[in-house]
Model the fold of this input.
Amino acid sequence: MAVTAALVAGATLAGCSSDSGGPPVLFWYINPDGGGSDPEGGGQAQLAQECSTDEYSIDVQLLPNSASDQRIQLLRRLAAGDTTMDLMSVDPVFVAEFAEAEYLAPVPEDMTDEFTKDRVESALEAAKWKDKLVAVPFWANTQLLWYRTSVADEAGLDMDKPVTWKQLVDAAEKTDTTIGVQSMLYEGYTVWINALVAGAGGKILENPGADFNSIEFGLESPAGEDAAEVISEVASSGVGGPSMGSSDETASLNLFQSDAGGFMVNWPYVYAALEAAEVDWLDDLEAVQYPRTVEGEDSAPPFGGINLAVGADSANPDLAYEAAACITSVEHQTAYMVGTGNPASSRSVFDDPEVEKAFPNGIAALIRDSLEKAVPRPQSQYYGDISTGLQMSFSPPSAVGPQTPANAQTFILDVLKGKALL
Done:
C-alpha cells in the first residue's frame, strides 16, 4: 500500500503542470528503447517532442528495463486510478490483463480504421481483446534465424529452403559451432516455447479469455512433446553453448559473435548491433525465416513489440488518442524504425528506402513477411502466471523431457486454481 501511495503521490505532483493554465500535458510512460529521454535520440522521447502541438505537450516517463517490472509499475498506477496514465507503451502480452480489468480507455470508433489500416496481421491480433481493438499497434517485432553463410555451406545446409531445428542441431554438431537461443528463467524463454509449440501446429492456450474454471491448455499434446524434444536436443547436444540455461538475447548474441558462433534466433536489432561492433565478418551474415519445429509444418515466428494504450482514468483520453495517431503514423513509424532498429507495425514502412538501407540484403522485407506469419504468445488475463509457470516447468533446459509439457500444464492449472504457488 505504501508503494502504491507513493506512486500515486508522485503522479499527482507530476500532473500539476497540466493545471498551470497552459495546454494540457500528456504523460507517456515509455519502455527503454535505446533513445532514453533524449528528444533527439531517435526513440519515443523524440516522437513525443515531434507530436506535441499547441493543444497539448507530451512528457515522457521512463519505465524499468524488464517487461515484468514495467507491468507492475503500470498496474499499480492504473489500479490506483492515476489520472496521468495518458499514454502507455505496453508489451502486447499484458494488453489482455489490462483490458479485462477495465483499466484501458475505449478506442474511439471513428479512429479504428486509422489504427488498423496497413498493419501486419500479428500486430492487429495482439492489440485486440475478445475481438475488439483495445490498444494501438505501434511497433512490432519478430525473431529471425541468423547464420554465418560459411558455416551453413560447410554443413551442407541449403538455406534457400526452410530448415528445421533438427537440421540446425545436426549442422552445428557437424561444424563444431553453436546455436544461440534464449532459455534462462525469464520472458524470452516463453517466447521460444510458444514458437516451438505453435510451429508444431499446437497452442499453449486453447480458449483465450476463458476464466480459470473453464480454461483449456494444449501443452499436453503431440505439439507440446515436439517442442520439448527440440529444447532437449539443443541442450543435450551442447550446441546451445555452455551457459544455455542462463542465456538471454544479449548472451546469445555474444555466443553468436564468438569464434564458435554459427546460428542464432534473435530479434532484428542484431544487424545494427553487429554493425556497431564492427565485426569483420558482416559480409558472412545472413538471415532467413524462423526454423520449423517439425518437418512439413510452417514455422511460427515469435511476435513482440509495443502497443500504445490509454488509461481508463486519464484526464485527457481524446487528446491521448490524437497523440497516439501522430506517434503511430507511417512517417513516425519509419523514423522510429530507422532510429532505434525496432520494426514498424505498418506494412508500407518496410518499402521506405531509409528502412531498406538500415536493414539491407532483403532483411527489411524478411521482417515484414515474418511478422505476417508471427504468432503472439497466449492472450489471457492470467498471462503473468501462465508465462512464469512455463518458465519454471521448462527449467533448466537440460532437464526437459517428454513429460515436461504435461507437467507444465498441470502445474499452471494448479496455480490458477490456488492449489500451487509460483
